[in-house]
Every structure is written in structure tokens, then in C-alpha cells.
Amino acid sequence: MSRIHANFFAIALIAYLAALPVCAQKTVSGKVIKVTDGDTIHLMTTDGIPVGVRLFGIDCPELGQDFGANAKKFTMDQCLNKRVKVMVRDTDPYGQTVGEVLALPEETNLNQALLTAGMAWWYHQHAPSDSTLEQLEKTARDSEIGLWSVSDPIPPWEWRKSSEATKDVVISAPEAKEIKTYKRPSTYQFSETPIPENHIRPELEQPSEAYQQPGFTSTPNNNLTIPNVDRPVVSPTNSKAPTTTGASNSQPTTDMVLVTPKGECYHRAGCRTLKNSQNPMERSKAIGRGYRPCRVCNP
């Protein structure tokens, strides 16, 4: 009789020890630091370890679906920057923990709260025997709240399949014309001439065609001169300067302009583009040395 009792207790002990891993459910606690979407959160454990958590037994609309953003906001309001306890059920193929999330200190079951608010489907493929989740979805569906307020909502698992399928579709359109996109230039350049250092506002410069209008002439070295408009001009190819009538016939007329050591233009006195040192010079000498008229002050 004692041997029978011993065998009975041995069998009972073995059965108890075998059942311990099933009964002792693992939990993870920490503060929620990020909400990816309605059914995916990230928390920092008390040991400083980041953990990604997928809510067990439910499937919220993706962010590209109707009510996807609503479901994410609902989850953020419930647990973001708050402490939670996760009742671990499994690990998904991406290494994320799968479990039930209890928002502390009330231990509100976030999985069930999302179903109650009509912000998730019961994920029967992964929790087929969870009658509580099944009933919560049915109640929300019958009440037409949340995503059930629209007709024929698409389950996220079907939506994901259709999204993956469209990635492989290639549309052939031989008649389509190439679309050219205009890109705003980072700098402005009106000609191949190097921009002088005293160049301030390029948008004030006029295109070079302006100097081809009637009334303008060019010398053989492409230096532009303005013939008799307001002032007499001494041509660099002619040593005789034009003279005016009256008492000044015996004296050549001089027309002074201003140049800078590093500039390429000659300027009228007071030109706002002038900087640094300014050297006076006769217009004819400035033209002969290759200076061109400033396009701002138009000397």
C-alpha cells in the first residue's frame, strides 16, 4: 500500500512540475516611449532595455486605412509616457513581444479597450479561442461605432495583402511622354563673364542683348561704348577728341569716371555698387584698358 502511495505522489509531483512553465506567465513592465500604430508600442523596461510590443489577439487598421490614425491616437492617449505591464504570450517573426498590455495603475486592458471603442478587429487567426475578444468585437460591430460606422470596412490583413500585390504591378505606357521637372538654380549667371567682387544684386543686371539695341556700338575688342548722347566720347582708336563750340574749341573735353583695382566696370560718381578704393580715370582710358560701363549707374 505504501508503494502505491509513493507512486501516486511521484506521478502527481511530475505533473505539477511539468505544468509550472505554463502557469507561470512572463511579464514585462516599463514606460511606453513610442506608439508606432494602434497595436504596436515600444517601452523602456525598468532595467533600461527597449522592448517592442505587439498587442495580442487584435489587429488595428493600418495608418493608410480609414481609422488607422484614430486607432494610433487612441493608444497614445491610453499609454504613451505611462507605465504599463505586458502579459507576454509569444514572440512574433520580427522579434517583438506579443502580449496583453495593462495600463497602470488601473491595469486597463488596452487590447480589450481598442475592441470596445471600435478601433480594432478581433485577430481570430492568432487568437481563435479567445471568446472575450470575439464578444467585444461583436458588440462594437452591432453598435456601429468606430470603424464599424462605415460600410464594409477592409480588415487590415486583407489590406496588407493588396498593398503588397500592387508593389509588383508594372504599368506599361509606351505612349507616355517623359515628364521633365524644372529645378530651381542655386545661383544666377547671366553670362560667362566672371562676376566682379563688387557685384551686389545680379537681378538688377540686364541681359547682354540690351547692348545690341540701336544707339549702341561695339569696338573691335568688344568693349561697348555709348556714342554722343549726353556727353562727348573720346574713341580709343582716334587720338583727336571731339571739341565743343565757343571758347573751349582749343581744349579737348575730358570725361572722368571711377574704376576699382579689381573691378571690370567704370562707374559714375556715387554709384551704389562702388566699394573699397575708387580711382578716377578718363572715360577713353577706361575703355582702352578694357573696362565696360556699369549696368547699374549707366555712366
Please report the number of helical segments: 6
Give the termini separation.
128 Å
Mean of residue pLDDT values:
75
Helix/strand-derived class?
alpha+beta
Order of helices and strands: HEEEEHEEEHEHHEEEEEHE
Tell me about this structure.
The chain is α+β, with helices and mostly antiparallel strands and 299 residues long. Helix content is 24%, strand content 20%. It is built from 6 helices and 14 strands. It has helices at residues 2-23, 68-79, 110-116, 131-143, 156-167, 283-288; strands at residues 27-37, 40-45, 50-55, 58-59, 83-91, 97-103, 108-109, 121-122, 217-218, 224-225, 256-259, 265-266, 279-282, 292-293. A 5-stranded mixed barrel has the order 1-2-3-6-5. It has a two-stranded antiparallel ribbon with strand order 4-8. The protein has a two-stranded antiparallel sheet with strand order 9-10. It is elongated.
Topology:
Elements: H1 2-23, E1 27-37, E2 40-45, E3 50-55, E4 58-59, H2 68-79, E5 83-91, E6 97-103, E7 108-109, H3 110-116, E8 121-122, H4 131-143, H5 156-167, E9 217-218, E10 224-225, E11 256-259, E12 265-266, E13 279-282, H6 283-288, E14 292-293
Parallel strand pairs: 3-6, 12-14
Antiparallel strand pairs: 1-2, 1-5, 2-3, 4-8, 5-6, 6-7, 9-10, 11-13
Helix pairs in contact: 3-4
Which keywords apply here?
single chain; 299 residues; alpha+beta; five-stranded mixed barrel; two-stranded antiparallel ribbon; 6 helices; 14 strands; elongated
